[in-house]
Amino acid sequence: MRVLIIGAGLAGPCLAHGLRRHGHDVRLFERDAAIDARAQGYRIHINGDGDAALREWLPAEAYEQAVATSCREGGSVSMAGPDLRDVTEIELPPDAAGITVDRLTLRRIMLRDLMDSTRFGAGFSRYELLDDGTVRVFLTDGSTAEGDLLVATDGANSGVRRQLLPDFSVTVQDARLIYGRTPLTTRARELTPPPALEGFLGVAGPDGRRLALAAQRFRRDPADFGLPTADDYVMWAVTVPAGFHGSEFFELGAAEQLESAAKTLADWDPSLSTLIRLGELGYVVPTSIQTSERPELWSPVPVTLVGDAAHPMPPVGISAGAAIHDASLLASRLVSGSPLLDAVRSYETEMLDYGFAAVATATRNHAGDYE
Questions:
Q1: Which pLDDT score, from 0 to 100, does residue 368 have?
Q2: DSSP letters along 118-155, please?
């Protein structure tokens, strides 16, 4: 079977490893010109289902390296108010256990053995279904590729999904997010609230302003495994309500975005704005907050969706695990020996159930209604 995967983030490589292990021909296409062409995620948590998927489908050495370079932390999740007093630890459900990693480090580990089948600088343009039941994909570098199945792992703004499901319902919230990270220097350690050094800390104001803080402290330097060295840092994400940003939000440069994030929290505990102003300009990323509604099950074709391409959700630490679980489920269906479209339909039916249950949980949690 020939499988074409759009997007070489985390779910795409996980699927590729699983299928290649069973002898299938897999090619990945990535719009970025290189693996580290842009800042694209920092410290992320992968829940128990996602961790189990990595353990099952990655080569043993790759999974061992993922664990070895994961975050040294207790895994706690706490909430506090803008004055950082009265910190409350949240009891997590059993399935929240998993692995916390630096996204780029994990991606490098996963792609290292897939570079021969990964093409960078080749984003998705469109696809067409061929008379023989296969699919042809047109790429932004001017090339085409043909396969038995096209899999979209190209994120919340998936071009594949727009063609497959043009009426798919996505809501973009008025609030915006500014992501960044601050090197974990001695000064940054002094400024970082203790719960964020040992786990995740959410800080919530009464007016929709939010701050997520979490330190990434590597168990081992990725350089020990032949990867680029990585220093410890504090990841932060500031939710900026509509009243705190203008229409030119996405046009601001990195320095202006950094200052905007700091000013959004100007009347909170002063350590927070100071910590943000120490952030690295190359890692400041503005983004929107999206959520989605479950679609009706569509007619099966040799095109399917994985992760945020299938079920966009607010960023609350759930989506990475859900996407990797999708990849695992799809891999298991495709190698089961069932006819291709039967395998795809079985995957999509189950994926929609748990995927949109995750969307509902993420939407509640982003609003501060933790279960």
A1: 59
A2: EEET--EEEEEE-TTS-EEEEETTS-EEEESEEEE---
Which residue reads 């007016």 in tokens? 207
**Maximum average pLDDT range among 46-50, 120-124, 240-244:** 120-124
Q: DSSP readout, 253-296?
A: -HHHHHHHHHHHTTTS-HHHHHHHHTS-GGG-EEEEEEEE-PPP
Check residue 95 and give its pLDDT: 62
What sign does the CA torsion over 73, 47, 120, 179 have? negative
Question: And the tokens for 183?
Answer: 């090197």
Element (H, E) at 237: strand 233-240
Token couple for 115: 């570079």
Backbone φ and ψ of 91, nearest 5°: -75, 125
- pTM strictly above 0.70: yes
The tokens for 202 are: 């959410």
Does 370 have pLDDT greater than 70?
no
